[in-house]
Structures
1.
Amino acid sequence: RDPRNLWPQPLTATLPNGTAIGADEKDDLEDELKRRVCDGTVKLDEAQRAIAGNWVQVWIDAGRP
């Protein structure tokens, strides 16, 4: 319910390398982070920081889940 987190996500955006990325990819990353938190491989606070920060880089580092 934090107003800083309430903004529309673009459905698609283009990275400098030409890769299209947007809300669907962020949703996939959120799902992957949830799985990792639930299986104990990532701490909740780490996942929260990852998604709140440069999530595109986290998405790339996670193997583009």
2.
Amino acid sequence: MMFPVTQVVLDTHTYKSWTDRGKYMLHADGKSFWYDKSFEVLVFADAKLGVNAEHSWGDAPVVGHVMEFGLTE
């Protein structure tokens, strides 16, 4: 059985607005980390986290359902 490759990023940045945090999660600063995994969990210094997922038709629904389950349960 194959599992997607995952990366957990412990980031030292903090952001006051969701917009700035979202922009960083989309493209970072170009040198912080690579977007070469099926999905990455980014944990920020202020204990907020986000997920950056590969968005092909096969991977995106799986990550979406896992995140939805985690947020609702």
3.
Amino acid sequence: VFLPETSVPAAAAAAERLRKHIESTSVHSENHQITVTASFGVSDYFQRTNSKTRETILSEFIASADQALYASKHAGRNRVTVYEPKEVAL
């Protein structure tokens, strides 16, 4: 989901609302009740564009959101994680 002109805290809050809604909704099938959860990764990588091409910006944006998503999954799933760039040691 792209949320243009949305701050990181607002995007994370939107993802959290969606996550909670998904978690609270059950699917009923014959004799079974199925509960679904979701993990989200939030990134604001577009703010770090410099002189990169659009393709590079989009690729890096998706990669950073994907890293945050996998951090959510590794931390136990069913959560929202905001991408934090790693500091480069000099």
4.
Amino acid sequence: MTRSFGVSLLACAALLSGPARAQQPPSYLGVDISYANEMDDCGAVYRSGGKVVEQYAFFKSAGANMARIRIWNDPTWTPYSNLRDVKKSIARARAAGLQVLLDFHYSDDWADGDKQLAPKAWETLSTPDQAKALYAFTHDTLTTLDREGLMPDLVQVGNETNGEIVSSLARAKDPINWERNALLFNAGIKAVRDAGAGAKIKPRVMLHIAQPENVEPWFAAAAKAGVTDFDLVGISYYSKWSKRTMGQLGETINRMRHLYPADVVVVETAYPFSPEGVDASPDLLGVDSLIPGYPATPAGQKKYLTDLTQLVFAKGGVGVVYWEPSWVSTPCKTRWGTGSNWENAALFDFKGEALEGVQWLTTPYVHPVDVEFRVPATAGEAQRFIDGDFLGGIGARAMTRDGAFWVYRTRLMPGAKITAGTAATAQAVADAPALEATVGQGATVIPLKL
């Protein structure tokens, strides 16, 4: 057994510099306003402080740094969210100074946690041919956008892909055939990498799962099947459809960022500012979506968003995206009725005035600091492992050799009290005496001794 023992953190703390410093991840505070063009065509008017505003420019000025935009393959039922419409949306986002996350649904209609319907043109293809079609659609879309100066900064390979993608409704709910699923996912990921290879912007790849209870088992199965080349984990979190509390969402985020070399984003969330809307179209979020302590009021909506975002950052996530803040009621008809199913969960009130929830974007959040656990390396030592309560119970993690030391770099909240131990084998860490320490206010080295 290898022993480790506590030392004075204040006496041994030092600022990380040079190669020892963990790379600070980007932060994303965004809005999915894929309805923007449709809302404008339907006559929606948005105001802030009584003045009429343009959606993209308004959210940029309100503190957003990213716009999320969806794309369907061949949505003959609507003139929106096709390539022509997406070009217009990305151009508007770029004009406002926003980064862009392009969300491929790989369907002619909505793809979500319950259904992943294959585009009509792909329905009868074999799986290898579907993979080729998925690659071509992704690659051609991105290279077309790049030629027009519209390459997105981030790309989702699928939307809420809980079930088997490019499939039928029944199969999407069945156990996933991971040999097939992995072939399709890897085709999409490769298309993004290939399209970005010669482009000025090389999009980051996100994989996206709905509701935190589904995230860890899905990514574990994906990794086992060989789906490993991604930069971000996207999570949808709606209390109406999730069995997890906000706190449990935070625990999932913490475990995921230690399990995979990827940033974690809550890429969809929303909260109602009113228990019901004012038009005849049924509301998707109502009293069944409420969390104790967060009433369906403008103030309750703001508190939900600020508390959720602080939780995401505190647990090591890198951002939150609101869906869909400007889907307000208009005289236009949808397949569900006239108006909007989301008007009581937008970030504008029923008269089109911006709500206080928008201030979530400029709240001064507390972010984690860089922390490096370091233990001297001994001659001939092949590997060293670390375990601690900050890992959320995922088990010992391998440390990295850096010169004369084994190191494990992460980011933790300042003031966090932690317990950590190290050993030469993963099995031995649990039996090793642990270090107890408090994370300092700045980047910190926590030395562990043999």
